[in-house]
Amino acid sequence: MAISAVDPKPVLIDCDPGIDDALALLLAMSEPTHLDIVAITVVAGNVAAVQTERNARRLRDLAGRSEIAVFGGCRRPLLRPLQDAAHVHGETGMDGCGLAAPQGRPSQRHAVAAILSAVAKQPGQLTICAVGPLTNLAVAIVQRPDVMAQLKGIVLMGGAAAAGNVTAHAEFNFYVDPEAARIVFESGIPIVMHGLDVTHKARVDRPWVDQLLTVDTPVTRSVAGMLSVYNGGVDGDPRGRPVHDALAIAYLVHPEWFGGTDCHVAIETNNPDQIGRSHVRAGADIGEEGANAQVIFEIDADRFRSYLAGQLQSL
Ligand code: BDR
Ligand code: CA
């Protein structure tokens, strides 16, 4: 179920920046020979959708990639009020970034329309890399399942086979919009899932930030500023902090650094104690339903970390 294509791979990034989203977007924008970013779509998640849209444009400005279109998307989860993560990313979603207000204006086109038109333009070719709550994707699937069936696949960050990070069971992106996650996992679209099981294995710490800053650029300064805030800052945990979303982008360019297993993933939307939990079954436990996702469990963390630093320094 691995998703591959000839470079540069056409990819649409759906996100909620968010500090680790910011690292993911900067990493993607540093790879023009491998990734053709057809659009960035944003959704409510880490902070409100108006702010995530502004943040995506600020990052586009920082990377000097003004040609990439940014589209604002769903402003709240399908059936629930938004529970944000401003306590992790700051009130702006990118506290510490030191960036100016974005250039230009928000696009008039909705993210869901942009997603559907991007898929229809390149049937069978486009990969969506989704690193926020899955609201935009779910709405697109409900509106036009025939169009979304033409996706090459979805590479996402979300879920956890083991412990969650919002509750004992649930990871943030699936917890915020569990109905959307369920629609995506029941869609039949090929999925590669990077959950907490793998993202917690590739953290960045103070020595990593110091090494990043040996090349002094607006990008490295901004990233270091955000990481001094992110979830209490890199200095707040000797193990460092996981940069969840950046792994999904690294996978697009270097899938050989990752190890996964075909699994059946079901999203909990009923049991009030386990809302947003991803029930992951592998091997003989999959049963008749069959696999609906490749779940990533392993990463060459050293290669990932040095790749991430090098690419950010190159921008
Ligand atoms: C996910 O939650 C968000 O806060 C991060 O941006 C990431 O996408 C990790 O659980
Ligand atoms: Ca995110």
The whole-number mean of residue pLDDT values reads 96
CATH class group: Alpha Beta
Name the shape in a single word: globular
- Ligands and ions found: beta-D-ribofuranose, calcium ion
CATH architecture: Alpha-Beta Complex
Main sheet overview = 9 strands, mixed
Describe the structure.
By secondary structure, the protein is of the alpha/beta class. It has one domain (9-314): Inosine-uridine Nucleoside N-ribohydrolase, Chain A (Alpha-Beta Complex), CATH 3.90.245.10. Helices cover 36% and strands 18% of the residues. The protein is built from 13 helices and eleven strands. The strands form two sheets. The chain has a nine-stranded mixed β-sheet, sandwiched between helices. A two-stranded antiparallel ribbon has the order 7-8. Helix 4 (111-121) packs across helix 5 (135-143). The radius of gyration is 18 Å and the shape is globular. The mean pLDDT is 96. Bound molecules: beta-D-ribofuranose (BDR) and calcium ion.
